[in-house]
Amino acid sequence: MSMLIPYGPQHPVLPEPLQLRLEINDEKVISAMPVIGYVHRGLEKLAEQKDFQQDTYLIERVCGICSFIHSLTYCMGIEEMMNIAVPPRANYLRVVWSELHRMHSHLLALGLLADAFGFENLFMQLWQTREHVMDAMEATTGGRVMLGSCCIGGVRKDIDPAQAKFVLDQVAKVEKELKELVPVLLDDYGVKQRLVGVGVLDPQAAYSRGAVGPTLRASGVRRDHRMTGYCAYGELGFEPVVRKECDCYARTDVRVGELHQSIDLVRRALAKLPDSELKTPFKGNPSGEVAVRAEQPRGEVLYYLRGNGTDKLDRLRVRTPTFANIAPLLGMLVGCNLADVAVIILSTDPCISCTER
Amino acid sequence: MMEIQEELTLENQLEKISSLLPRGYRFVTMTVVDDGEGFDIFYHFDLKYKLETLRLKLPYGASLPSISKAWFAALIAENEIQDLFGITVTGLDIDYRMHMLLAEDAPVAPFCRVPGVGVSALKVETKSEGGAL
Lengths: 357, 133
What we know:
Chain A is an alpha+beta fold. Chain A has helices at about 45-50, 55-60, 65-80, 90-115, 120-140, 160-185, 190-195, 205-210, 215, 235, 250-270, 320-335, 340-345, 350-355; strands spanning about 5, 20-25, 30-35, 150, 155, 285-295, 300-310, 315-320. In chain A, helix 2 (about 55-60) packs antiparallel against helix 3 (about 65-80), helix 3 runs antiparallel to helix 4 and helix 4 runs antiparallel to helix 13.
């Protein structure tokens, strides 16, 4: 006989309020229905009431993890509407801060996953490593999460040679510590028992259900929006990290691969940092409509913007990666054991604040 | 700037959108804009990193047929549209009845220019005081 279990919104392994109404039969999940809305803030509506420059900083607060990439994507949209060419140095600095954000987000996600499968020590070690990245962001912008460094037309802050050296030292520490942590994460017998073959999402389902980011790439689909070459990614060279196992282990492995990739991108971006202005001045207000996308740590984000020639936007719409990953998550949960639900949810690295805005 | 690849009508919307699946498209999301005279419903799809947008102009008070039978991923976006714009989406696989994001006592259709303008009469319970209507 089946029964209904309310999983969350307050649950020991869920970092944010999300409820799944699980229909189970003898410990097997038959169906899952998401219940969200606990942290909906109406930010899209608020953005229509602020002027488009203030929105840069409002939008950064959509998420407390990938905040910089939210403001970056928004700025890219306004720059496209107003034909603003971003100076080369600003494009490289945008890559540096984006990749630092990806690193701290992936370390956070891997730590939470470790917590979900009961490896608390690994969770604490991963978060300790994350602190190096947070220190690098604080040293270059003054903020650990809300950097406030992206602006329409470029960036507000520079990275001088001493700061660049500090960033490189910090990512070297991350790299060194990852050498010790990754074997535990990927080779440990107990960890593999919890991840391998769990939460399988086949490539066809991942694609047709609109999965994005590591969730999509771990199902063998080679898709990463950085491939389009926005900011300076086109000049730095880039290949997505893809795995074909389609399970929680593959999603973990993709994030580990992307951590190493981000370290490499930060190094190359700082080594090739060109000399130029940081920001292109502009006048006027945006008009027309654009839809721009960028790759956040959890996957592709889309911003739709409609301007009317005034300082207020007619519409600002955000489709965050977790929003896109809800439908694939529901598919992964069907047929799994109740004990694996937490691991499967955390393997998609959900961000509920992002999703609800 | 965003290009509209195709204008849809209520008559051909399901057929046109369903035909994208076998052609290799990936559903990205839906966007709704209240332009003061009606709703612009945008369906965003991706094919090889190119964003393809289809637009349906929906008059106030009209119902929107769900595409979730063809694109399950649209389910969450369609429920969000019901919540925020008060547009009735018909044929939803899971219908949160305007309370996926919004609480029971939240304003009705808060993202409309005139709050509640797009809401069908059947679903609105007007309040004597407070609320959006």
